[in-house]
NAD(P)-dependent dehydrogenase (Short-subunit alcohol dehydrogenase family)
Amino acid sequence: MNRLESYTAVITGAATGIGRATAKVFAEEGAEVLCADKNEEQVKELAEEIQQAGGKAQAYVLDVSKESEVTGFAEKIKEQYTTIDVLFNNAGIDQEGGKLHEYPVELFDDIISVDLRGTFLMSKYFIPLMLEKGGSIINNSSMSGSAADLDRSGYNAAKGGVTNLTKAIAIDYGRQGIRANAIAPGTIETPLVSELAGTDNEESGKAFRDAQKWVTPMGRLGDPREMATIALFLASKDSSFVTGETITGDGGLTA
Ligand code: NAI
């Protein structure tokens, strides 16, 4: 407990899924969690839930793909907190789009804008808040960042970019004490996966989950909290000499 005592941590895409679970775990470990998401209602509800449980959390409405919103957010946080200790670039979208020659250009642009450009923008404007005392950047990539998934050229390209961008940050800022690492989740039970699969009551949802369980050596989907504890390791001093790394949490799927 208290591995993040007196830390300030920014988490994007905090309203649901892996971001939400991570915000709760970081708050339980003593961090003040700055929860940012484009979903205003759910991100405010999350901050209230953390506060009611005795933790420290604030909610911010943010679209990570919009440069003016990211700069405005970074300025606000600099005014209020001066520095931050952790940045978890977690916001992401995914959608199947068919084979590359059928893949809609707009979908490709949307996914690159949020998943890759959003990670770049947030890192670019928040690294200055880490230069004074160092910090930890955690990027939520995917198993699709190294092994491609069918009919998802936009997502595969974006996440491959996120994995390599992580290494670029690690080598650029190693001497400033800023570490950068990525997480590569397998199939985790979150709203993103429900959107891809449908609910478990529908035939498509059940078939999707059964197929994922079958290809995963551990025989089940992951829980968002199982990704949050990887993020905790990367955020805390427990990983003080780990940088430029990707930690896979996929129940053996890519083993
Ligand atoms: P989710 O859909 O539950 O959460 C994504 C969050 O990001 C939502 O709260 C959404 O409102 C927010 N968001 C989306 N676009 C945004 C934007 N432009 N600006 C700010 N916030 C935005 O999904 P999940 O599963 O928790 O995903 C989190 C991350 O994990 C994503 O980057 C995803 O690609 C990655 N991931 C998830 C896997 C899974 O199986 N669930 C597998 C591999 C990677």
In short: The pocket of NAI is lined by residues 12-13, 15-19, 37-39, 62-65, 90-94, 114-115, 118, 140, 142, 185, 187-188, 190-193 (CB under 6 Å). The chain has one domain: 8-186+222-249.
